[in-house]
Structures are given as structure tokens and as C-alpha cells.
Design a protein that fits this description.
Shape of chain A: globular
Largest sheet of chain B: 2 strands, antiparallel
Number of helices of chain B: 11
Distance between the termini of chain A: 21 Å
Number of helices of chain A: 11
Strand content of chain B: under 5%
Oligomer: heterotrimer
Radius of gyration of chain A: 19 Å
CATH topology of chain B: ABC transporter involved in vitamin B12 uptake, BtuC
Largest sheet of chain A: 2 strands, antiparallel
Number of domains of chain B: 1
Chains: A mainly alpha (326), B mainly alpha (288), C alpha/beta (253)
Structural class of chain B: mainly alpha
Helix content of chain A: 55-70%
Strand order of the largest sheet of chain B: 1-2
Largest interface: A-B, 42 and 42 residues
Strand order of the largest sheet of chain A: 1-2
Structural class of chain A: mainly alpha
Shape of chain B: globular
Chain lengths: 326, 288, 253
């Protein structure tokens, strides 16, 4: 029986086709720098959305401050990048993820004391605090942010297989990371830890009375999600070559939330699909009108009222036997 | 600290705290009674400020503009509740967050379409446009004092409304026990609609009242929203009294923080929240 | 009465506001015996169970498990120490299969569930414990069904099965027969009889026929206080109990 494999086969098929398409795109679209950059960004956001889905879709923890970790990782990379050379990828990545883990641990210890509406508000408030710290810091570039002039350098004991300056190479690194995170999360959700997490979402009180110290599990999930969000934020900063406070803003968190719900929360492939759909919509709307956010807002309202289970619901019912999700 | 400067800072923190209270009390009532998390609450603060700007220019009188603005925002609140919010009562908080987030985008963009992206100012009413001298060099703007007075009057009126009237009785009952209210034969749909409109009107009124001193600018609702969240978390969801205490606390912490510890001035409100979370995760005035 | 008390409670108090829902209750549960707690609605029986299981912290009093003080421990610690409870209002994971309900319960006996790599379903011991508890409650044929698709009686059985899957030494059962038909009730009574050996059982129940069929010892609670405590025959003969409870309410409360 396939517990937690709660996604329709059709959706899995879309995912496979989509990933295959992403894999071959640079071969045929090598000249389409704009679209390659666009797709790379979509994949980064998909990683970010997947990390949020671990909290929302599986743990039932509606965080509205997830962009904090996305932004902190980017700022860590910026701080560690010298002006005229690239930072070591391994060192800067480890530092960025470490910063995120620590931040998520501290914030998690505080916010997980609350639940429900409180949790939503408190996660948002702490993220906003981080936003203002970055925004008001001269050293971090204030409201304009700062450039990451040189991309991080990937090297194995002095051997550099390729340079991330080449967009195609970076593109494949991101694609590989996306696939890696996807399978990591599948593994995690099938593990005893994953089953506990889903149990907590369904009925935390009962999980406690069965003998699970639920707070610790939620805290670990919160830290893992923070680290994965940091991974996405690191890639985003390296890809765009700049960081600014918007990376930590609640619009960034809201966007990820939108992707998770649009794709169908609690489905492993949902956030990827949601990221693609939302970014594509944004691309279409921005090319059409300056006031595209009005249309996006209307679209969001419509989705909530008409498609309560996200786009994934268009691909049919989930397999029985899986975990229950709202 | 010099006594005159201290007095000015105290008055400023009172004024900021009371304005914050108007926004946060609406938010906490809507949370506490209707169980709705409304991210768009800050947008109504912004809409209020822009209404004050346009209406003052149109009718030539700030107070008349205030009155008309309140009527308009009540109408907007009623319409929104009828059109959208009432479909969220039985939905997960997640969808409330998402829908009201969509509303923020809509309101911001509508604001940009109607008023543009420039910063505007609203004239302080003529007869209040002077300052009281405190020392030879320091003085205090009278409008700020009047503003705090109006906020205090409103707070007292809310206290009266909630503690002494039939509507207030229903609101209190609704916050503690929804089923009981329904069993008493009260039209809960109507009650919710009124509460929502009241909350919206309070936020918009705060925006209007503050517009002469804060200026009117894009995105002004977001900052207020998040500080209001902090107020609600500190005060305890659904507690108007808690909102008042917490808003004044934040007013003091923020204003004096800027003077005493300017390095972390942006963080004081959040640090206060963190302390309260450690001490009493359900807020200072937890409801049963 | 050979063994020492598995669970012993002294002067347990829980106040809600000014009201004492449980006002100084003392009792014992011994391995191999079933101790039933009866009393009218609002007597504080469920509150008592909640105090014993750690769902609620007591206002005063002491709870010992095999001589160790467990007063005020959180419910997960109490569970880990070997106290299993079932709920009056069915409290199973409706979106999970019957098997997964029990498997998750059994998983709680792993030294830790902070395990991230191996598949949860690959832990054979856990699977076996889940299957055992399903078999013990007669649910093995329904293993693959979603809990929400089970009948009310089966959900009550699943409730017990989950508790058993945590391998408890002490069982706290809050009205396991609530809302059951006659046939379901009698099979549940048979089940409870089989559980007596190897467990210390504390049963809160309204069904007097079942209580007198099962109980080795009875405690009658009224208004949060112990009115009487003793062997079933003594309780039946106690005039105060008859007046307060049995006479009016018999037999099903």
C-alpha cells in the first residue's frame, strides 16, 4: 500500500514529462537566454515552494514567514563573495544553510509555542523583523540590496568541472538540485519521521497521547524546511547575481504559498506544478499590462473560491490509502 | 532625558499607540469573533488615508471628509463580507490567508490606478494648525493631541459598545461560544457582517485620522498590518482590552527605542513579541 | 491481589475555575485486574482519565506508576512509560487506513522516530505489532480500509487497537462501549476480558451490565468525589450508592 504517495498518476506523468522537457530545453533552446533564465528561476521557486509544502501540506504548519530563510541564504552568499572572485561553493553553501538552520531553530522554538492563527501571524512577524534588519542595514545594502558580482566556484579538490558563469551549466545544476530535493522529500515523507509529521497534521493531540513528543518533530520539520528554503535562496542569489530585501518580504512568502496551494498542497509534485503555473501566468500578465497584479489578485481570489484543492485536483482524485489532506 | 523631550516622546508614543489600537482592535475583533484572519486589514488603513486625501480636496473640509470616508468604508466592508468573506467562515485559515492576500494585490493595484504612485499630503485642519510651545525651542503640534483625544474617545465608545449594549453582548457571546449565540436566536450572519464592517471602518478611520501627519503613500498599509499582528499576538486574540494595552506598549517601545537604542529601533516591537511568546504564548489577555 | 499496584492515585484534584471537577480522588489499578469507575454524568470520570493520562495537569495530588511519581508529566511521557488510553469520543486518524492507525501507534515504541531514510513500512517489528493489535481486536480483515469507512463499532475497536499497539502495561479506557449496539457491546466485553491478563485496567463505563460482568473492583464517583469503593457485590449493596446512582439510572445511565 502506498502511504503518502498521495498523488494522482496523471500528475506524476505530468511531472516526468515536465522534468524531461526541462532537461532537453537547453539543447534546443541554447540561444533563448531569456527563457533559460526564466525556467531556472521557476525551478528555484519550485524548490522554495516544496520546502514550504513540507510545513503546510504535511505538517499542517501554515508559515507566512518562509521567505526569511530564502533571503538569509542569499545574503549569506553575498557577504561571503569577495568583490573580484567567486566564493567557494561548498563553503558559502554550507554557511548559508547553517545560517538558515540556526535561524529556523531559534524562530521555530518561539513560533511553535503557538498554533493556528497565532502561528500564521507570528511567523510573518518574525520574517518581517528580519526584513527590516536587512532593509535598515547599510552593510547589507539597505533597500537597494547588493550585487553578487561573481558566481560561486564549484571545485572538487581544486578540479573545476565547469563554471557556473555559463547559464546552461548553472541551469543543469539547478535542475539536478530540484530533482534531488524532490527525491529527498519523497524519502523523508516515507520515513518514520514523515509518517509522524502527517499524523501531527491530522491530529496532534492524539499523536501526543500515543507517545510522540510532537514539539520536537515540528521543530525538526521547521528546520529542514528552513534549510531547503535556504538552498533555494542561495541558488536564486547566485543566479540573479544580486540580493535585496524583497527576497525576505512577505510577498515572497505569499508567492510560495500561492504556488503550494495552486499546485495542490500535500502532493509531492504539486508545488513544482504550482511554481510553473504561477510564474507562467506572471510572465503572460506582465507582458500584457502594467497593472498585472490586479489580475493576479483576482486570479487568486478565484482560485480560492473555485478550485479549493488546487490545480492538482484537475488531474483526478488521489489514490486511496494515502494520508488525508483538507 | 530632558523633561520636555521626554514629554514629547511620551505624547508621540501615546499617539502612535492609540492609532495602532484602532487598526488592531478591528483585526482582533474579526479574528476573535469571526475566526477570520484578514491580511487585507492594512489595505483599509491605506484606503482610509487616500480617501481622506481625495475627499478633503473634494469637499474642502477634513471633518466632513472623515465622516464621508467612514460611510464609504462601512459600505465597502459590508459589500466585501457579502461578496467574499462570508464564503470563508468554514474554510481553513490557509484559504483565508490566500484570499485576503489576493485582496491586498487588488487594492494596491486599484490604488495605483486611481491615485497613482506618488506620495500625497493632507492638510492639517486650519484651526488646529498650530503648536503649543513647551520650551523656547520645543513645541508640540495641537493636531496630534486632538488626534489622541479622538482615539481615546473611540476606545471609550468601544468599551461602552461591547460592555453595555445588546450588540456588545452578542459580540462577547460570539467570541466565546458561537453555538450559544446561534441557539439564542441571534442572526449570526448579520452579526458577522456588522463586526467586519466595524473592523474595516476602524482601520480606515485610523488611516484618515493619521493622514495629516503621516502623509499618504503606496504600501503604507503593509507596515501597519504587521505591527497590528504583533499587537494582537501580544494582547491575545479577540481581546480589545489586550489590544489597547499591547498597542500602547508598542507605541512606547517603538518611540523610546528610536531615541534610546537607535541601532535596533526596527526590532523593538518584535523583540517585545518574542518575550511575550516565551512568557505567555497565548497573549497577555487570553480569552477563555 | 498478589502484585503491587501498577497505578496508584492519591488525593487527586483538578479545579476548573472555582469548580473541582475532580476533588481528591484516591484509587489503585493492579495488573491482572479491572477497576471500573462509574458515576452519573458530570461526576468527573473523564477528567480523571485525562489527569491520569497526562492530557491535563492536576491541581493537586499524586500519581505513581509502579512506584515512580509521574504527576504532571506530559501525555507523551506518560504514554512512553506504559500507560495507554482510549478516548470516549472516537479519536482515530480518519484519513488513514486501520493498519496505518495501528502502525503509527506501534511506531511510537521505536526508541525514536527521528529516522529519515529507511521507509516506515520497512520496520517489520512495527508492522507486526500493528497486525497483532488489529488481530486482537478482530479487525484484521479491515486492515486496509480507511478508518473513515469503518462502522462506529469498528472505529471503537480501532481506538482500542491503537492503544494496544503501544504495548501498554496500564490501560485507561474511557467508555469503550459508548454508542455501540448489543452485539458489538458483547464482543467488546469479551475483548476486554481477554485484555485483563497482563494489563492493569481502569475502565470508565456507563453500561452497568458490562461493568458488573467485568469489574474486579468498583469506584463510584459523584460530583468529583469518591462516594464508595469496593468489590462489585459491596457496591451493589451500598445504600448510598443505590440512592445516588444505581437506583435511578440503571442500567445504562
Amino acid at each position: 500500500m502506498a502511504m503518502h504517495d498521495a498523488q494522482p498518476r496523471a500528475l506524476a506523468l505530468v511531472l516526468v514529462i515536465g522534468l524531461a522537457g526541462l532537461a532537453v530545453f537547453p539543447i534546443f533552446g541554447a540561444d533563448e537566454k531569456f527563457y533559460m533564465q526564466f525556467l531556472a528561476k521557476v525551478m528555484v521557486m519550485a524548490i522554495f515552494a516544496m520546502s514550504l509544502d513540507l510545513l503546510i501540506g504535511y505538517g499542517g504548519l501554515v508559515s507566512l514567514g518562509h521567505a526569511m530563510y530564502f533571503g538569509l541564504a542569499g545574503y549569506t552568499l553575498m557577504s561571503l563573495t569577495p568583490e573580484y572572485e567567486g566564493a567557494s561553493l561548498w563553503i558559502s553553501l554550507a554557511a548559508a544553510l547553517g545560517v538558515c538552520a540556526l535561524a529556523a531553530l531559534v524562530v521555530g522554538l518561539l513560533v511553535l509555542r503557538t498554533s493556528g492563527i497565532y502561528f500564521i501571524m507570528v511567523t510573518l512577524a518574525f520574517a518581517q523583523m528580519a526584513y527590516y534588519v536587512v532593509h535598515d542595514s547599510k552593510y547589507l545594502g539597505g533597500s537597494d540590496g547588493k550585487y553578487v558580482y561573481v558566481k560561486p566556484v564549484l571545485s572538487f579538490f581544486g578540479w573545476q568541472p565547469f563554471s557556473l558563469d555559463k547559464l546552461a551549466a548553472f541551469y543543469y545544476v539547478i535542475l539536478g538540485t530540484l530533482a534531488g530535493v524532490y527525491f529527498l522529500l519523497r524519502l523523508l515523507l516515507a520515513s518514520p519521521f514523515g509518517h509522524v509529521l502527517v499524523g501531527i497534521k491530522a491530529n496532534e493531540h492524539r499523536m501526543r497521547s500515543l507517545g510522540f513528543p510532537t514539539f520536537s518533530y515540528k521543530l525538526v520539520a521547521f528546520v529542514i524546511a528552513g534549510v531547503l528554503a535556504g538552498l533555494a535562496g542561495y541558488l536564486a542569489a547566485a543566479l540573479d547575481g544580486l540580493v535585496n530585501p524583497e527576497l525576505l518580504s512577505w510577498h515572497q512568502s505569499g508567492q510560495a504559498l500561492m504556488m503550494v496551494i495552486l499546485g495542490g498542497m500535500g502532493t509531492p509534485a504539486g508545488p513544482i506544478l504550482g511554481a510553473g503555473a504561477l510564474k507562467l501566468l506572471e510572465l503572460l500578465l506582465t507582458s500584457w499590462t502594467k497593472h498585472w497584479q490586479l489580475l493576479l489578485g483576482l486570479f487568486i481570489v478565484l482560485v480560492v473560491l473555485v478550485f479549493p484543492n488546487g490545480l492538482a485536483s484537475l488531474f483526478g482524485k488521489r489514490k486511496r490509502g494515502g494520508a488525508e489532506h483538507g | 532625558m530632558d523633561p520636555a523631550i521626554f514629554l514629547i516622546q511620551l505624547l508621540n508614543s501615546l499617539q502612535y499607540g492609540l492609532l495602532l489600537f484602532l487598526v488592531a482592535s478591528g483585526l482582533t475583533l474579526i479574528f476573535g469573533i469571526m475566526g477570520i484572519i484578514n491580511l487585507a486589514h492594512g489595505s483599509f488603513y491605506m484606503i482610509g488615508a487616500y480617501l481622506a486625501f481625495s475627499l478633503t480636496a473634494a469637499v474642502g473640509n477634513f471633518w466632513l471628509a472623515l465622516f464621508l470616508g467612514v460611510l464609504l468604508s462601512v459600505a465597502l466592508g459590508l459589500a466585501l463580507e457579502w461578496l467574499l468573506i462570508q464564503r470563508l467562515y468554514h474554510r481553513d485559515h490557509l484559504y483565508q490567508v490566500l484570499l485576503t492576500y489576493g485582496l491586498i494585490l487588488i487594492f494596491e493595484e486599484a490604488r495605483s490606478l486611481i491615485w497613482g504612485d506618488d506620495v500625497h499630503g493632507v492638510q492639517v485642519p486650519e484651526f488646529l494648525n498650530f503648536s503649543i510651545p513647551l520650551t523656547e525651542t520645543l513645541s508640540y503640534q495641537v493636531y496630534r493631541v486632538v488626534m489622541s483625544g479622538i482615539c481615546l474617545l473611540l476606545a471609550a465608545a468601544m468599551y461602552f459598545l461591547i460592555q453595555r449594549t445588546r450588540l456588545g453582548m452578542m459580540i462577547r457571546a460570539g467570541a466565546t461560544n458561537r453555538e450559544m449565540v446561534q441557539a439564542l436566536g441571534i442572526n449570526i450572519g448579520l452579526l458577522y457582517r456588522l463586526v467586519f464592517a466595524l473592523g474595516i471602518a476602524l482601520a480606515a478611520f485610523a488611516g484618515m485620522l493619521g493622514s495629516p501627519i503621516s502623509s499618504v503613500y503606496p504600501g503604507m498599509g503593509n507596515q501597519v498590518l504587521i505591527v497590528s499582528f504583533v499587537v494582537v499576538v501580544i494582547g491575545g486574540i479577540g481581546s480589545v482590552r489586550g489590544a489597547l494595552v499591547a498597542a500602547l506598549l508598542i507605541g512606547i517601545a517603538d518611540t523610546f527605542g528610536k531615541v534610546l537604542v537607535p541601532q535596533i529601533a526596527g526590532m523593538t516591537a518584535y523583540l517585545l513579541m518574542a518575550a511575550v511568546l516565551l512568557w505567555r504564548p497565548e497573549g497577555l489577555f487570553k480569552r477563555a | 491481589m498478589a502484585e503491587a499496584a501498577a497505578l496508584s492515585v492519591e488525593g487527586l484534584v483538578r479545579n476548573f475555575g472555582g469548580l473541582a471537577a475532580v476533588g481528591g480522588v484516591s484509587l489503585e489499578a493492579r495488573t491482572g485486574m479491572l477497576h471500573a469507575v462509574i458515576g452519573p454524568n458530570g461526576a468527573g470520570k473523564t477528567t480523571l482519565i485525562n489527569l491520569l493520562s497526562g492530557d491535563l495537569p492536576p491541581s493537586a495530588g499524586k500519581i505513581s506508576l509502579y512506584g515512580t511519581d509521574i504527576t504532571g508529566l506530559p501525555s507523551y511521557r506518560v504514554s512512553q512509560l506504559g500507560v495507554g488510553r482510549s478516548y470516549q469520543k472516537t479519536n482515530v486518524f480518519l484519513g488513514f487506513t486501520a493498519f496505518e492507525n495501528c502502525r503509527l501507534a506501534a511506531q511510537s515504541r521505536l526508541p525514536s522516530s527521528m529516522r529519515f531514510v529507511r521507509r516506515a513500512l520497512a520496520y517489520a517489528d512495527v508492522n507486526r505489532a500493528a497486525e497483532r493489535s488489529l488481530a486482537a481486536t478482530g479487525l484484521e480483515a479491515r486492515s486496509g480500509e480507511l478508518a473513515s469507512a469503518l462502522s462506529h463499532g469498528e472505529q471503537r475497536q480501532l481506538e482500542i487497537a491503537m492503544t494496544l499497539a503501544t504495548s501498554p502495561r496500564v490501560l485507561l479506557l474511557d467508555e469503550p462501549l459508548a454508542g455501540m449496539g448489543a452485539e458489538e457491546s458483547s464482543s467488546m466485553v469479551e475483548l476486554l476480558k481477554t485484555l485483563r491478563s497482563g494489563h492493569a485496567m481502569l475502565l470508565v463505563e456507563h453500561d452497568m451490565d458490562a461493568v458488573f460482568a467485568l469489574a474486579d473492583r468498583l469506584t463510584v464517583m459523584v460530583n468529583g468525589q469518591v462516594l464508595a469503593s469496593g468489590a462489585p457485590a459491596e457496591i451493589r449493596a451500598n445504600p448510598a450508592v443505590q440512592e445516588a446512582y444505581l437506583g435511578e439510572d440503571e442500567p445504562g445511565g
